[in-house]
Structure prediction request, 827 residues.
Amino acid sequence: MALKRTPIPASLWRRIGQVVSFALFLFLFIKTDYSGSDELTWAVNLLFRIDPFLALSAMLAGKMLVALMLPAVITVVLTLVFGRFFCGWICPLGSLIDLSRHILRPVRNNLDPGKRQAKYLLLIFLLAASFFGLPLAGYVDPFSMLVRGLTFSLQPALDHAATSFFTLTYRHGPEWLNLLTEPVYALLKEYVLPFASKVYALSVFSLVLLLAVLGLVRLESRFFCRKICPLGALLALFSRFSLLRLHGGSTACGKCRHCHTVCRMAAIDDQRAIATAECILCLDCLAQCPQGRIYYGWRKGGAAEQPTDLSRRAVLASLSAGVLAPLVLPTRPLARHADPLLIRPPGALAEDEFLGRCVRCGECMKVCIGNALHSTWLEAGIEGIFSPKLVSRIGYCEYNCTLCGQVCPTGAISKLTREEKHAAVIGRAYFDKNRCLPYSDGIPCIVCEEHCPTPDKAIKFRQAEVLNSRGEKVSLLQPYVIAELCIGCGICENRCPLPGAAAVLVTAEGESRHAGRMQGAGY
Amino acid sequence: MDRRQFLRDVFLWSAGISLAIPRFNILPEALAAEKPQALLGLATGEDYAALVARVLTPLGGMASFVRPGDMVVVKPNIGWDRNPDQAANTHPLVVRALVVQALEAGAAKVKVFDRTCNEQRRCYASSGIESAIRELDDDRAVIEHIDPRKFIPVNISRGKSLSEWEIYKDVLECDCYINVPVAKHHGLSGLTLGLKNSMGVIGGNRGSLHHNLGQNLADLATVIRPKLTVVDATRILLRSGPQGGNVKDVKRLDTLIASPDPVAADAYATTLFALQPDAIDSTVAAYNLGLGEMDLAAIRVVSA
Prediction:
């Protein structure tokens, strides 16, 4: 007695693939955190390292082969075989976009198959600009946008909400309620929320960008993927040549153009021809074709491919824009003086190389154990937004921690051993003696000296007799910095007990990544 | 219920809740408890588990501090992301032995924690204390991270410099609080010992206490009252305290000091650094508040 088997529809397989990929992505995202040992086992950098767009951009900017990014070749090879499945099955942002389509129903159902050239032009511009010194790829990369939104804003917001709620129940709820709520909170803390509450610069901005991308489905389904995403554009260029692809209906279909209507990518024209470059293999058409005519199979010779609609003029224009735009950069004062408060993480490459390779994925800031790394705004120029910088007053660089270099997918922050980390100078501290209590008010303090982590302390103190604010002579300890010992970790600034600005401050002076380099013509 | 009524109710309820933030008052009777006995156990040896048992013998063993069913807090110094050899944190074997002793005395639960200075998870891991407690594999022995919700404002009625501070709930509510500092150098206070170790159970901006550290620590000691202080001098940090980092600054003494009198424990521990008790401001301030004995001649030291 044979059981009757109902085959699982093809589009359901795709949906399962999306769910599994997204779950894997979330797992890696949560795992991008200190795990109890100095070495990290899992991190979301895996996702970035298979991103050929970021790989290409980082390599063009660095003008070298970035070994860390070589796994991106796998994506390219798979795309050459299977087509643009990555966008339809793997991309976590794509999955979220599909999900938002169910919530925000697109106002237009008849998609305009044209105007999809924009993503190619953007891709060309970004890659050219990367090569000539204006690295902007991370701004629009789908993974970067997603991880930034989650890291800077969604996860911390969830944490603040949960903590407020469970603080309320803990402080004011009856005993029986706590028996229910406390285990839930413990589970959340263990598996979902960050270990400690965190804040991030540009958190709202990152969220707005992410929501905007998701909100674009209100206009047309997969708007971002079809018209903007440079990674999608790059994969589309490869998938034109894919060995396997969908084959569509023909004139034999009569009046039926259902495939043309259901395609979320507008990849099927009204002649039922499928544009392989645009097809993300969501398989809706295959599943829904009333005649079952659409199938996935080997490429056939002679089948006409839909044109990309790229005019030579437009390509040349974006190429030249990418080449010419970087020329204006040396005209900024930034070319002579870097912002002294721009303190890069330990192991960061020299500034130009660093920005070229940094893909703005935000992972270093996610993993930063002290919540010390934050998004730069315009301090490093128009090309520096979302790159990491140390904000000591919010958090300090933990002396023995080397996590940021471990998660950086491109090596913009090198992976350091503990010894190398101890020797990496990211800045130097100085005292504001007008505010520092033992100098300004004759009040004992030296909390900074206590926290200074170098075994031979960079902050030392001397006994001094001073007049306090009441005019009495007091004997106390006054701190000072020994520049050669200071590595700029910022714990002194972080722990300075003064309200508001600290009395001991760190600047990027003396950073070892620029050691021996003449700093411009300005000084 | 109309909207107006609803808003009024919400307002009243939330006002009620915000007014109900608990505040802890320690009854004057409890504070005026008689001065602890200035009796001090002193022991030297290389087997730290046995050493803990030995140093408690002159005090009547752990049973004179922990009664069956007690909720016990063992508070080591886990302040820094340093390993045991660097002598910035209490030795994990000493902490573990104390936990075991408390369990053997019948404790229902023994909690180990510290509000660290470096990142908490790193401190717990590097100090070796987390794994030492976990290895006991006993549900009654728990090492947990500080839960910020548990800091409760406490009136410090006897304080000369402080009138109120946030203190960790578990310390206030436990039956037996055992303070286990590591003896080490400290730039500002000279040494950090038992009284200074109490900073690991308080909330707030701890750095600001440094502006009058000695008196502030003594004021805190009026409300944070360990039944037992065990000073870990198995190895002591002589320079670059309180976090050190260079093993050349560490001296091995294989010594433990134990006393029910927190001031006496600190006073005697000071002598290990070739200093007199009055060199440490907090010891003097606590003595002046009548919290214990600092006169070495008045402390009965029993070597075990």
